[in-house]
Amino acid sequence: MSSFLSYFISGISLGMIYALIALGYTMVYGIAKMLNFAHGDIIMIGGFTVYTAMASGISPFFAVLLSIIVCTVLGVVIEKVAYKPLRGASSLAVLITAIGVSYLLENLALLMFGSDAKQFTSVVSMKPVTINENLVISGETIVTIIVTVIIMIALSFFVNRTKPGRAMQAVSEDKGAAQLMGINVNRTISMTFAIGSALAAVAAAFLCSAYPQISPYTGVMPGIKAFVAAVLGGIGSIPGAMIGGILLGVIEIFSKAYISTQLSDAIVFAVLIAILVIKPTGILGRKINEKV
Amino acid sequence: MKKLRTGSKAEAGLKNNLITLAIVVVFFAVAEILVSAGVLGSLFEGLLIPMCYYIIMAISLNLIVGILGELSLGHGGFMCVGAYVGAVFSVLMKSAIPNAGLRYALALILGGLAAGLIGVLIAIPILRLQGDYLAIVTLAFGEIIYKIIQNCYLVSDKNGLHFSFAKPIDASNLDLTSKKDILNGAMAMNGVPRSATVISSLILVVITLIVIFNVIDSRSGRAFKAIRDNRIAAESIGVHITKYKLTAFFISSFFAGIAGVIYAHSNALSANKFNYNMSILILVFVVLGGLGNIRGSIIATMILYALPEILRGFQAYRMLLYAIILIVMMILNNNEKCKAFFSGIWKKRSGKKKEDAR
Amino acid sequence: MSLLEINNLGIAFGGLKAVDALNMKIEKGQLYGLIGPNGAGKTTVFNMLTGVYKPTEGRFFLDGENLTGHSPIQINGKGIARTFQNIRLFNDMSILDNVKLGLNNKQTYTVAEGIFRSPRYHREEKAMNEKAMELLEVFDLQEQCDWKAENLPYGKQRKLEIARALATDPKLLLLDEPAAGMNPNETEELMETIRFIRDKFNMTILLIEHDMRLVSGICEQLTVLNFGRELTHGKTAEVLSNPEVITAYLGE
Lengths: 292, 358, 252
Prior knowledge:
Oligomer: heterotrimer
CATH architecture of the domain at 4-79 and 170-250 in chain C: 3-Layer(aba) Sandwich
Number of strands of chain A: 4
Order of helices and strands of chain A: HHHHEEEHHHHEHHH
Structural class of chain A: mainly alpha
Helix content of chain A: over 70%
Strand order of the largest sheet of chain C: 6-7-8-3-9-10
Largest sheet of chain A: 2 strands, antiparallel
């Protein structure tokens, strides 16, 4: 029973990380109607920033802070340089551009850090908590869950109760109308990318602390899985991204524990397919009804 | 008068397709000549067969993405199916069918059919899904396919074939002297004959082109485009959406399978080569060449595949440059201001011609 | 037996009844109009008749056959074709191809025959080309047969949509606001074209329209819909002079 609980908690923790990343995907999709394929690589950049900062002697807290700043700036710059010129183009064109940005970030990291994985020092200094002899929860897991819950509450508050947050919702619903209401669409979109990237930086710190390795390709699989999570929860829905992320993390850990490590990814994807076949727009997704 | 109009349109279309065929054949003929003459190194020759199977992948993907209008992010998975079915067949039939050419041809057909079948099976559950959801499911299927194959173990010994899934075969049941590994989980597959040649691959490209052109220029192709342009209108005039979507997926996956068989008979074969990276690579070729533009797919594939080789001089920076070139090209191709700028130049140069055409 | 018989047809979306207990009888060869203020539910009726929506109550019959709840593809096969309020052409395809798509189900050659270019492929393609051109000539569109559909001027786009619907060889043609956005001259032309279609193809036509000149010019009978319910029906002249109808349009 304890091992079940242990896996469950690990799953929640991993799921929270996926949720943070998925939030970035879903918010950007909601507002810019694009799939930011480079999002996973921003995680990688965030991870490397923390790695480099801590290797230079900076404390974990400030390293993470630095990483948040770097990722936020990076996210905004990428949007301005690569995506903004394609506003109005087909979503497929933007997707390919995002893929180009993804290649760019990966190869930059390859040049700077080489292709082999580096050992990552955890940002969490908390010691593991022992509940009983079967149930030991790592410090990383606890901090991840606590911090992520705080972030999600703050984000929900921001999106629903503050003016910039509601502006984000407005632009997601109807860009033209929002503009006519006086909302600065460009600034709102930049802000969305900024928030998404900042969340990715936090996710990176926790991800690399829990699975302590980093390489230029570290961000890719979590990126894809978080994308799956966002779609699973209903792309464009913020609560959906949270639910999808957590669900995905739990399924992955349970699959690894009880079925097979090699097949855990396949199982996760199979669950996604099964859910979408039953509910074609994801768990909380809205069916877009075409007017006939 | 009316006959002349429709005839000329059909002829123009046919002429276009023949030009595309000619481009492909001439390119490869010239390349082979230059290689035999020693002008182009063997490095370039090594690019020719891969170019062929990537071209086949790009054309077949364009049928789904450009003509049918559905985003498929799992095309690599069908290539994987074809590759492994063809490879296992070739290895198993080595003694039963000593004629390498016949064996290869059969491997091609089987690999294509297997991939086509998987394509249909996958298409069935996803028919109801809209746009981005369909895309993620195709991505998921692509990942599942190669991961499943990566977990297959197949061994033959004098007692026959032994198969195991997710764990290696128990060696104690095997006759060790006659044991031969065929599929060994995640490890590369051994013993696949290198049956692919530049000529046979080129022939397959030509066959693919002819089939795809003929499909596009028939009522199936028109139906695909109708579903792409306006599904609701297509339904209202009786176009059978399900039937045509399944047809498109079958044809597209079939040729992806063929590409896979060529790959398997010219490369070391391991399943993880066919993950989302492969699918995305092909998608980039297709989008850059122009959705629905078959000739564009071919040219984009040739250039983009050869580009990292051309950039070899830049060594470590070449993939970086590749990424930058990709981004810049997408912006130039799709930004309104850039498009207006370039079409302005184009109009000035051929202004009179455009006037007359109207 | 009427060509189209509608019995108590209705549909509710959640709690909202968009169409309520509609009854209608249309005879073969009639030019019938469905009118009413915006939001009255007219297009919803069309959507039910063409299978886009499943009615939640009532039934309708085409030539005595119950088609309620069938799919759009089945219904088109049985003989109902339509045009849309917001024109739905295949924009990236030529106008000839748009019409040829309407003929898709008349062709029988298989995918394989298309690939290997069998004699049947050549025969049927030639026949369809000719048939499509004939249809385009009815609407005076044959000169632009190679044009992309999206490049046609608006009025011609509407005509193309009608041509494509006709290509499916229907018994009943539903036109949703065919005169929308047309100037008086174009509307005159459209009226002649609709009459011509009815006469030449023995067509029964049900149309939704706001342009009263067209309605009074060609419709023989009308049903007036208001808030999803029938207000009145009958001969055109009587209905249009009914004070309740006038109030419904002009509002309180």
